[in-house]
Amino acid sequence: MVIRLRHFILSLVLLVISVAPVCAQTLQVSGIVRDSNGLPQPKVSVTVKLDNSRHTTTNADGKFALEVPVKSVLVFTLTGKKTAEAVATDKPLEITLEDAEKKNMAVTTMRQTTSINTKYYPLWVIDGVVYKQDSVFNTADLASPDAHRLIAAALPGLSERDIEGFTVITDASATALYGNQATGGVISVRTRHAGQGTNHLNYTSQFTYRFRPSYREFNILNSQDHLSVMKELVEGGTLTPENVLYKDTYGVYGLMYDNSIKYDNGQFIQDNTRAGQLAYLRQAELRNTDWFKELFQNTIKQQHIISLSSGSQKASYYASLGITLDPGWERETHSRDYFFTLNATFKPLKHWSLGIGVNASYGQYHGGNDFTALGQAKTLSRTLDPNTYYRYKYTPYNVKNELKQNYRDDDDINLRFQASLAWNPIRQFRASLVASLQVQSAEYEFTRTEYSNVAQRFRAMDKRIIRNNNPYLYKPAEDVYALPRVVMPSGGYRTVQDYLSRRVDLMARATYSDSFDAGKHIVTATVGSDLYDQMQRNGWHNEYGVNFELGQLQTYDPLIFQWLRNREENYYTRSTTIDRNVAFLASASYTFLGRYTLDGSFRYEGTNRYGKSTIARWMPTWNVALGWNVMSESFFQHLKPLSSLTTKLSYGMTATMPFVYNTDQRIKPYLPFRPNGINETELYMDQPANHDLTYEKMYELNWNINVGFLDDRISASLNVFSRLGRDLVDISYNQGTGGFFKLYGNVASMTAKGVEISLTTQNIQTKDFSWTSTLSYSRNTNKITKLNSRPDVSTLVSSSGAAREGYPLHSIFSIPFYKLSSEGFPQFYNAEGRIERDNINYSATTNLDYLKHSGTRRPIDQGALNNAFRWKNFSLSVYVLYSFGAVKRLPSQFGTTYGDYNALGHEFNRRWIKAGDEERTNVPSIPTSAQREKNPNLSNAYTTYNNSDVRIARCDFIQLRDVTLGYSLPKTLLEKTFLSSVDLKLQASNLFLIYSDKKLNGALPYSYDYEPHSIIFTCTVGI
Prior knowledge:
By secondary structure, the chain is mainly beta.
């Protein structure tokens, strides 16, 4: 018995000894991953080097845990960060991922939405909370190396320093994250936070020098060419005294005629002899006024920012305070902005974290009101004297005086408060709650003093014909023989407008993420709910008879209210809109072996826009995706020179809200005009009930592939997408039931397709020198496949574009031009293919195939090329932007009569002058008064010429957008100082066009507002 027990104990010892090495071959490694600022990094991929079967990802707090073999090497990867490696130990690891070199690979042009009438714009999201849609921001600038500065300029209260980074979302996942309001794409901005163990103080100063505009960028005749046109008008009997003197607006000829009959100090103001007129016109001919020099100034805009960041294990803070001072690029314009940002993170308890964000800004602006410097410089003839008063709307007018007497003052306040609470009791589970309050308040005062042209129109009646035609005078509608009366005998008037927006957001999330079987299976599931309540209040009122030079004494005449009533105009308006939305969402993700990922998301969103109707109150959005991380496959190491390869296929449906909400009938009040003074309100049916109205649907298929070669020295990304829009809202014709022949319903459909490509190459990479090139390209096309509405000719040829079945959205059609007649009049092809001059039927809705499809207003091909160079502490980037495929209708400049006030384009230098010119030019003649009398419908021909294919230009362009030179002082020079860093940057922005269509005659091809050429110097000092 003793022997058996001894043998058993010996066997047990041998078994333990033999098993112990096997158990010691693996260990449980854990740790946390942070960025260079000390912030935890979620979703970092953690794998064992040369063994991709062992894999996990960091949670929301940047923590991870993984069982790995002893002496394994762990690899940490995250997009936008440098890859890090560490040897596995039984002690917690602390990994820091440095920022990778910026490649600007993303294609940032927004995709074509599939809606006929509803307009969607990119949605700004700041730190996960929706801010607003933006119809002005040029999304092509997001590919620029200077994108942070441009984003900060678009978001009040944020500076370039405050922005940590941004992400552009263009596929269906945007609406899965942020709902229906994200249909136009999302620009998600991450603001800066302080990391653990950081203490930094930075001062940044930026100086922007802006150049005045140049006539090289505008299609405007000089004074000599302009006066030659005027002389031809005089010879043709158009600019005669009887035709000009009593016009509501005139320039050099009208002033000459008017002064010829004005007697002052014993003589006429203008010598009315032939010699006197020639001398006067000679001055106008040689004047060549540079309105850009008269109305603009070369000034320097300043911005100064102080930022502080500090962090410990329990709390971290980032704060910035800044001011922008702008003396004004346009004369009589100036502005001042103050802004403040605070981001704080607290960890009061082990499993809890609290985040607080505050952003505030206050801005003041003084500038042009009814007239602006840029608007006037583009329209005024260069023959005009900048210091002389001419006539505009029957009243003396001088633009330089008007900008002083007709102005606006703005006060804007933007406040954003955000708080987040997160609970992370175990590594696998996280719950969070985010609350946000956003308040925007603005007050605008539009002032027209008693000396402004706009105010003096109310008193213009010095001549009988002016008195009878001036619309600013009161004439009783019931008395046709009554003489017009002045309704504002003294003073000017002011419009006060106020705007208030208050938005409250609540977002709740609960996420569970875990890995099983040594990281082979990774499951993540999220459920949550979003809610927002937004109130917008907007109103304005007019204050008439304000004497600004008499202490703003009010001397209004009650007759002005009757004048407004007869014109069916109000002197005040106020409206309030309440937009409420609630959404429930869920998403799940499953990853197998770190290679294959299946994602799914669903969002159910409700709105109050349909009132009490529940027919279309709830809108679903869903998306599924399948991803493959090919570089985790065992065979990938044999696919040299490939260094990375991932691909993803997704499909989803987005429900979008149409622009009409009449699931129930919409009743509105109205006060009809009654000349006998009786006021009786009425109610009318604005829109009948449409119980079949529902949301528009967009189905999207998207395929993405990312590939890298030679250790990612060459990297590329490809996105191919196809969108199908169904149940789109458009006009649905009926038999007039209820008095409505044109109702809106879900009767249209369209498709949109596109491809997005980005390529980055590290051409040279040495210790002291590097050269990186980035090319982005996108192509967007669309086609309307079903449309019930029948647009007429006038709609199809409009410059804004139209919808027509079988063609792209925003298409511009043109009437085909034939040639000029022997008299220089334009001729065209009509619907029957015959040559026509005056009788094109603009109201026709059938037999329209003769119209020429000129193109679409939306660019088809867009992209950018950036070359970045680095030599030691110097950096240089050259950014080129390009766009192709869009067209525009040139301004409608041609007619049978012209005035002497407004500028004309260079096309008039090629106009028909004599018989035979029709063989060399397609620019029509200037008709004489005799020709107009002989051809009473001749004006129709010139209107058609403005709508013909001759007046179409391509908007293709290649632009050298930015050149930026940077320098950082070497650390060795700063070691003995209190400074930690000094960075200098000099940038030339919006330089010049390399290519554009010659038919534009120098005018800019892009549709967004004119941007000045500027030089920007930035200095950032760190302590």
